[in-house]
Amino acid sequence: METTQKIDYSKFKCDVYTPDGVLIKEAITNSNHIFYCPALTVGQQYNIVFSYGEMFLMAAAFISQSEGKVTFLNPAHFLYNCAVVRPSKSFVNSVKGKIKSSRIANVPIQQWEKKLLEIINCSGQKIPPLCQNSHGTYIFKAGAELASKVK
Q1: pTM for the whole thing?
Q2: CB 144 within 8 Å of CB 88
Q3: Consecutive sets of 10 residues in the chain, 151 residues long: mean pLDDT of each?
Q4: How do strand 55-63 and strand 139-141 relate by DSSP bridges?
Q5: What single DSSP character describes residue 42?
Q6: Cα(5)–Cα(10) distance, rounded to whole angstroms?
Q7: Rounded distance, CA 98 to CA 48, Å?
Q8: What's the rounded Cα separation, in Å, for the pair 59 and 140?
Q9: What is the pLDDT of residue 115?
Q10: What does the DSSP assignment read for 79-104?
């Protein structure tokens, strides 16, 4: 008989960082898993880090297009932009504890992430092999005008 642990949804976090790795604050998440972070600057790029407890799940580069709003993101938003950015060393240093926790726990890269990395590689953007199997060595770029869709 297989036993499974229940997921503690209160452990999911969304933190907003500058591209240089300065933690701005934890985003506020509502019951529909839509998150926002007050006092963001329009036109400024932010890195959004998703984690579970102390384990890194993924990161997204997002340009705020509406003051104080960060919006729900899903794989389609990343596919729309179909690009990754290399994080700065200072950003990686800021989240290295979470990345290490993910590697120790052997948190798998999600299937959609693998597929998107494959599509990006086929499009001519070459991602180093390390990026294809390691959390934290790339950041997906989110599609444009996402914040304007949130009311």
Answers
A1: 0.76
A2: no
A3: 71 88 85 74 86 86 70 64 79 88 84 77 61 62 57 44
A4: parallel
A5: T
A6: 14
A7: 14
A8: 6
A9: 77
A10: HHH--EEPPPHHHHHHHHHHHHHHHH
